[in-house]
Design a protein that fits this description.
The protein is an all-beta fold. It has strands at 2-7, 10-12, 18-26, 33-39, 46-51, 58-60, 68-73, 78-83, 92-99, 115-116, 120-124. The N and C termini lie far apart (40 Å).
Length: 126
Amino acid sequence: QVQLVESGGGLVQPGGSLRLSCAASGRTFSSYAMGWFRQAPGKEREFVAAISRRGGSTDYADSVKGRFTISRDNAKNTLYLQMNSLKPEDTAVYYCAADPRLRVRVGERLDEYDYWGQGTQVTVSS
C-alpha cells in the first residue's frame, strides 16, 4: 500500500505556472505507475497525465498537451506536474493516483488506479 499527499496548488493568473508535487510513502514508489487527475466543480474527475514506473513512458490528455509535463523522482518518492500557460478552465482539484499493476501502457481510466491522494486546489483567475 502507498500513501499519497499532494501539494503546490494555489491561485494563479491566466498564463501563469504552477508545479504540483505528490509525496509517496509506504511501499516502494517505483512499484507504481502514477497519474494526475482533476475534478472541476460540477464535473466528473478526468485524466490529466500519467507516467510509467521508471518514467520512460508518459501520456497526456489532449487538453493539456504541450502545456503540462509529468515527471517523477523515484529517489525522492515524489511525482510532479509542471503546469504552464494555465487557463481558467484548468481550475480544479488535482489528485495524484497510483497504479500497482504492470500494463502495456500507462492508464487513463480512474478504475486503473488503486490509491489516491486528498487533492490540492488549483485556481486560475485574474
